[in-house]
Amino acid sequence: MGTKITKAVIPAAGLGTRFLPATKALPKEMLPVVDKPAIQYVVEEAVKAGLDDILVVTGRNKHALANHFDRVTELEATLESKGDGNKLRMVNEATALAEMHYVRQGDPRGLGHAVSRARMHVGHQPFAVLLGDDLIDARDELLSRMIEVAEERTATVVALLEVDPSVVHLYGVASIETTDDDDVVRVTGMVEKPSAEDAPSNYAVIGRYVLQPEIFDVLETTAPGKNNEIQLTDALETLAADTSIAGGVYGVVFRGRRYDTGDKLDYIKAIIQLASDREDLGGDLRPWLKEYAKGL
Predict the structure, then answer these.
(1) For the whole model, what pTM was predicted?
(2) How do the domains of the chain map onto residue ranges?
(3) Which residues does the UniProt record annotate as the domain Nucleotidyl transferase (predicted)?
(4) pLDDT tens column, 164-216
(5) How many alpha carbons fall within 13 Å on the CB side of residue 294?
């Protein structure tokens, strides 16, 4: 049984250029998904899986991230004086979610570089990485299962999703071997954004990882890859090829609900899907959507 995992890293240094001009002054991680910023869903997922020590890797003009998870005493006092207990509760929930820490990435040199900036905070222990573009439905288990597999096998674990072969070029794709567990595979190799013809499978890596601390040494010697950036996929490929480094790489195959907020269309779909399932919104939204669709 491996070391208990308690820390999570959330890379949040990107410029969010796909959402300009909305992200000119507002971090993309703070864009609302219904009534919470996207990053709050990610932090809530980490906390639900038992990770209460969270490091956010930020960049320039990302002060709103830290502000969101900090106290706003004037707002709290105003809500309390108005007797608006429900809104006060929601504000306080964001503040009390976890022990939040922040570090600047500095040069924007890719996801692998962003993860490497967590080394001093993480130390020599395994940790989770959660990307903010992938929102996992709170009703479906993923991260807790990945942590369980990582602790049992003392290995690195990635989240995998079966996708249509026509979209494999948008993902890192894994070569896999089956194991005795239905939802767990051994990853023998990884390719970053291959063509459909060159893809080793249709198992795509989505934005959840549980990494062994040896990843930091591998990242130090990982040369820039696609887009001249240090790719986390390339470092994982090294770990998958040499199981003596850190117990190899395994994948947990996710078959639940995932919301992609990585581009404008998928972001809109995510809001509609989540709002439709809400008790306070779905009852009115679903009939309206049906009527709206009739007129299209």
Answers:
(1) 0.91
(2) 7-262, 263-296
(3) 7-274
(4) 999 888 888 999 999 999 999 999 998 888 888 888 999 999 999 999 999 99
(5) 5
